[in-house]
Structure formats: structure tokens, C-alpha cells
Amino acid sequence: MKISPTRISGVVVIEAPQREDERGSFGRLFCERELASVLGDRRIVQINHSRTQTVGTIRGLHFQRDPHAEMKFVRCLKGRVWDVAVDLRAGSPTFLQWHAIELSPVNACMVVIPEGCAHGFQALEPESELLYLHSAAYAPDAESGVAWNDPRIAIAWPMPPPGTSGISARDRMLPRLPADFSGLPA
After folding, report:
1. 83 pairs with which residues across the strands?
2. pLDDT tens digits along 38-66
3. What whole-number distance in Å separates Cα of residue 79 and Cα of residue 77?
């Protein structure tokens, strides 16, 4: 596995080459030993799967607040998505900056989103599926997020969402950052 840092501290891209032959393909999705430098003392405690039917649909921007903040490993199993991490950490040199990468089974990349960063994505193909590995269990009381179109973040999404059906009711209610927002605790 090849680990490549991005300009946002803790957001890394992991390339996991796949072997292909006439039968199909084989590739590792996760290796605790090889990813020890990324994981630190964290453990993977929850694995989730999402399926997004419609091209252009945006999910996010989501995160969990302390004490349930989580690191996420995100990989696309089917289709293609444009995956985004947004730095919301107080005092970070990349505060309110975002990093995006296209994820697909073809490129076999996985992105790591650390605690204090929000996560979202836009489906670029129908029936796109993501696999998420989490370092903390889902905690409904810690669930939070930021509006996908927050002007302070100004994400350049590849396409407009397909009307109101392209963003869930829950995500449409996510707030924009207040003008005095100085970040999540580091």
C-alpha cells in the first residue's frame, strides 16, 4: 500500500494496487500493519456501506463531535464518487480548506479523513457504493455537519445536485458555519 499525504494534515490517500487476471481481480482493502503510521493508537471499530443511486447526489458534509470524533477510511467499491475532506480544526494551517479526490474501483484509492475534518461526496456514476472504516462507533448525539454549499468553504463540486432529491432532507438542514466559527477543538 502506498500512503500519500495531502496538503491537509492527516488527510492521506492510500493506493492499494489490485492484481488482475482472466478470473477477475484481488486487492487488499485494509492492512493494520501497513497502515499503522496512519492509525496511530486508533482501532477500526465500525464498518459502514452506502449506496447512492443518482448521479450528482451530494452527501455531507458530516463529522462527529468530541468525545466521539472519528477517523474515517473511505473507499469506493462500485461506480465513481468525488470525495471531499474539509479541515475544521482550530489552529490548523489549512483551516476551512478542502481536499477532493475521485474514488473508484478502477483507481483502487482510499482516502483517510482524520478527526476534526468533515466528509462529503458527490456521486459521479449511478449506483455508487462506498465502504467506510471508522475509528469510533456512531453516536447520534455527537452527529454534526456543515452545509455542502457553505460559502466560507466554497467547494467546487463537479456538478450541481439534481434538485432537492440530490440532497437529503437532513443534509439540507445542515447549517452554514457562523461568521465567528474558529474551529473544532484540536
Report:
1. 101, 121
2. 999 999 999 999 999 999 999 999 999 99
3. 7
Give the residue numbers marked as catalytic: 62, 132
In the beta sheet, which residues pair with residue 48?
132
- CB-based burial label for 57 (10 Å; 0-12, 13-18, 19+): buried
Query: Which CATH entry fits the domain spanning 2-18+26-170: 1.20.58.460, 2.60.120.10, 4.10.230.10, 2.170.120.30?
Result: 2.60.120.10
pLDDT-based confidence at 25, cuts 50/70/90?
confident
> Strand, helix or coil at 165?
helix
> Which residue carries 474539509 as its cell?
86
pLDDT at 186 > cutoff 80 = no
pTM for the full model? 0.94
- Structural domain spans, the chain: 2-18+26-170
